[in-house]
Design a protein that fits this description.
650 residues; alpha/beta; Rossmann fold; 5 domains; five-stranded parallel beta sheet
Length: 650
Amino acid sequence: MSLGQERNLNNGNIEVICMDCFDTLLHRICSADEVLNIWCRMLSKQLPFPEKIIKEIWDLSRMITAQRARKMLMEEISFYDIALEMYVRVKGLYEMIPFSLDEFICLLKENMIKAENSVIIVNSELVEKLKQKKKSIKMFVCISDFYMSGNWLYDLFKMRNIDFLFDRIYVSSDFGLRKSSGHLYEHVLSDLRTLLPGITYENMLMLGDNHISDYMIPKKMGMKAYQYNYKIIPRKINRMYSGFMNIYRNNTQSHIPFANYCFSLFLFCEKLLKELKKENLKEVWFFSREGKILKQFFEKYLSFCNEKNIKCLYINISRKSTFLPSLSEIDTEDFYYLKTKTSAMSLNDFLDSLGILARCVPILTGEYDFEKVESNFFKSNTFGRLKNDKRFISVYEEERLKARQEAKNYFWSKGLCTEPGKKYAVVDIGWKGSIQDCLYKIFDGQYILSGYYYGLAGDVRSTKNNFKAGLIFADFPVKTKGYEVYRINYRMLERLLYADHGGCLKYEANRAILKEFCKGESELYEFVKPMQQKIIEEFYSIYCGIELESQYGNDLIAEMALLKIQTYFCIDITKERFNHMEYMNSRMDMNFGDFGNEGFSARHKFQQICRIAVNNKVEMVQKLELLLFKLKLGIIAHIIGTVAKHRLIK
């Protein structure tokens, strides 16, 4: 708000402040047409019509209703009339639609408020200034030209904690009158005089973005009017981003650059709490090993929010410890997760993955070649013979049933999967949720699992009772906003979130049997421990940086600012950070993105980078920087990174 506008808020003649809604108090991150598209997309999941047909029904209904309104000398049509016309047309297409007229209108309104709420930002600075004036100004009213009703707008305000602001809400669709003609202002003045006898236009101030409706018309009628045309969203994002950069630079200067994962991990905790509250879940189980530090992060976040009703638990679990217990009888088991890993394996590999190699070697030696690698093992004669070998079947059945019971006993002892039909929340870093799938199969689908992950990518299997959500990035069911940025080198988090114990091998006597914590793993944990602690320390600074916007539900601002700094982080590759990556990669036996242990070839890497450039310029820049550092060309990498920051960070 300008100085001139603030002076007029202090003007003693002003008794009523009138305010426009959209692009003044509420700002959309997209066009109004895109909001309608989102609305139609939502409705297509609840109505027996595709999005395109619903949009056509809306457009035709609005056009026909507007023609009727003009014949009746009405300036604006009501949403009820549009909805009624839509209902008639929907019934014409599908007579058996399972909604009454009232239910149909309610469906339209509920989805519209969800669509709008998903893209709006509250002008929190303006709200704070107006809150200060509430004691000196007699009335605050909202005046809007809009096709939804005033009650609907009030509900939207209530969702954003600003319903206290207005004493009256006047919307064109409720009265058939518009601001642009001046007739809605006439109605407002007439109505206000029943509450404030003697009030005139001179005692009213109109604040809005439209030059005609919010400035010229009210000014011509004798009101004080000021045009509010500030683009608040970029300003808010840049201000928050600037605050985040202070944290970012401090971590870099302190020689702990990977602590800058604090931003996306804070966002993960924020989104996790929202999901748990939405589903009314009071307990959440964190999967080992990354879940150990994730649990600490989340508990710290809960303390900031003063949230005391959610219990966090930790459970030792792994693919290895749950794979055999999850298997079915040999005739029906498809070994899906082994097939997706590779089609080429030896009998030795297969039996070892099941954990029954030691028992099978004595009884099968001499009749099978354990070392021969089959290009398609599950189509091979070896596997065909094995499936019909009674000796193998006996061991397989005995071991899987024993492992299943031991696994169940362990999970029950931890309070997990004890009440059939109850929904259980589980948390892990990602990336396909295969451990969750194994857990679901161990209990034969009797328990409802909701898995919340930092990220999901690739072949993700999710069902109603075995649900999965990628909170930071996911390409299921569709790609989330920022997917291309957050997924870059996502496996780095497996190193950063390393725990202080070995992986889970199996279960015995209600306890988890853990693998010995080897020297390399111990060194990696000691290396990342200060980074983990620094991340926890930074959570409070991030929380304070977004607190005002969170008060009014402006989570999109924080998400956009966090995405911006994550983009910067992706391409801010220094020699120190590169050395850290190499050190951490050497102490964990897993591939690091596209720069794994498959052998180094500069030409091959450059070809990969060119392919990446088509869809993801940020990833392309990072991979190129990493390649140049590997080739001892750090100066060139620095130049490329500097140019990329200028061009890609908007």
